[in-house]
Amino acid sequence: MMRKLSLSLLIALGAVAGTPEPSAFGAGNLDSANPYGLSEEEQHILKNKRAIEALQKSFLKQQQIVQENRERIDGLQSIIEGLNGKIRSYDRALKRLDDLNRSVDDLHLRTDALAKTQEENFEQLRTVLQELGSLIDSINEKYVDKERFNQLETAFLEFKHAYETFLKKGDLSGKSNAKIFSEAKKLFRKKQYSDAKIYFAHLIKNHYKPATSNYYLGEIAYREGRYKDAIAYYKKSASLYDKSSFMPTLLLHTAISLERIGDKKQASQFYESLIQLYPKSKSATIAKKNLAKLR
Fold first, then answer.
1. Gap between the Cα atoms of 158 and 134, Å rounded
2. Which parts of the chain are TPR repeats (predicted)?
3. What tens digit of pLDDT does each residue of 55-100 get?
4. CA distances (Å), 38 to each of 4, 49, 50, 51, 54, in order?
5. Which of the residues 103, 151, 174, 288 has the least number of beta carbons within 10 Å of its own beta carbon?
6. At 34, is the secondary structure helix, strand, or coil?
């Protein structure tokens, strides 16, 4: 009986010992996983502590997102730099193409000038040959007299001089750009447009006063009635430098050229721009008269 009672008591005590009971020594421990026995102030501190921990977790997550975005931005920057490199490469290719187009234009101008001069020289040669033929016919009938021979010799020497002059005009390598520019303007004033075109085209190729040289080529085309060519040269000149002293004339002749090719709307716009920009110029006076006729 006593043994059964002791055994029952031990079992009861063991059951009590197996059930965790709060200990007074852990009450108020804020570092515990499940704090208990907290005062109102400690509960407030615990709430703030947990809020701070939540903010720290959120901050770490935001840092991770920022790092991922930074890596993406670095990747995009590499792609952009690669694209910029390609764009620069394309710009260089376009510049080379533009230089090639200018060279082709220069070649066309030079070819036209050479063809015209050569035609003149061939005409002189034809005249000399005709005289030679007449001389041969005369020899068949009678001996040529000294006066006739001298005339024939003079004609041949004139042709030779003209041909040698033509060859020298095409070679400008021994002259400075400044000297060529001065001679080009003299040729223009003398209305020797074929030679002047060669000189101005050479200056453009050497990048010497390109705005002025394009303007003069435009003036030559304008005076020869090649109005579309004149407009193209004027446009190029103005795009290079639009503060030149010849701008009023450039605008006026551009407007007249547009009017001559039938584009009266653009012609009116150029007349109006000229009047507005250079109201006191002689070109503006002419522009007002021409504009009045278009309205």
1. 18
2. 211-244
3. 888 888 888 888 888 888 888 888 888 888 888 887 887 788 778 7
4. 44, 14, 15, 17, 21
5. 174
6. coil
